[in-house]
Write a structure and sequence with these properties.
Length: 275
Amino acid sequence: MDIYGEIEKIGIVPVVVMDEPDDAAQLAKALSDGGVPCAEVTFRTPRAAEVIKKMTEAYPEMLVGAGTVLNVEQAKKAIAAGATFIVSPGLNPEVVTYCKEQNVVVIPGCANPTNVEEAMRLGLDVVKFFPAEQAGGLSMMKAMSAPYPGIRFMPTGGISEKNLFDYASYNKVVACGGSFMVKKDFLEKKDFFQVMELTKKAVDIMLNVKLVEIKKFDGENRIVMSANNLKRVMYHWAKRGLEFDVDSIVYQKDQIQSVVGYTLEHDVTIQFIAQ
Ligand code: 3PG
C-alpha cells in the first residue's frame, strides 16, 4: 500500500496517547466514523503496542502508526504490533535506518534545515515538522522548504481547529498531525462521540468546501463548490456517498482543477473547482 499517498488523502494524523488498550477499538471507530481512518499511537504509555494491535485487529483497513518512537526497540515492538508507519519527535538515524531496512514508512521530526539535510542523507523526502507552532509555524516551514523543493512535511505540535486550514493548504504539507481531536479528557471520560464530532469538524475545516453557485449545465442542476485540495475532497466526499466521474477530472500542472461528482440517490450533481 502507498502509505504516504493514503496519509496525504486523509490529510490529518490524530496523535493518540492512550493508557487503556480495551478502549482502542472504540477510539478507532470514532476516528474512522469521523472520516479519519488513521492514528499515530504514541509510545508515551507503556501499553502503546497493545493499543496498536487492538486497533489494527478491529479495523484492519485503518492506517495505524506509532509515534514518539525513540529507539529501535520501540520501532520493533510497534512494527510487530502492526504499525504501518513510524513517527518520532526528533531524527534518530538508527530508527530511520532500521525502518528503511524493514520497508516501513518512517517520518522523523525535523525542526531546522540541519535536521532536514540529515533526513535527506538517510534517503527520506517526507519529515515531521516538530514542534510546528513552537519552532516557527507555517512561515518557518515555508522558509525551510524553499532550499529543499523535494521535501514534504507533516507539521505537528500546536495544530488545532484554528490553524489546521492554513497548514493543510500549503502544497508541501502531506498531512497535519495533532492531538486536538483526541483530548486526554475525552479518553478519560470515554467520550468517543466527542472524538468523532471533532474529527468530522476537523475534516470540514481542512477541506474548506464553499458554495460558489447553483446553475444549469447540460440540462442538469449543478451545484458548484470550491475547495482547497480536490484530491482530498474526492477521498472524503466519496466516503460520504458521492461518486466521482473520473473522466471529468481536469488537471493543470498535475493538480486537479475541477471534478464532477454525483449521487444517484438524491439526483444531485456537484462540481468541485480548485480554490
Ligand atoms: C506529538 O507527539 O506529535 C505532539 O505532542 C502533538 O502535539 P499537539 O499535542 O500539540 O497536537
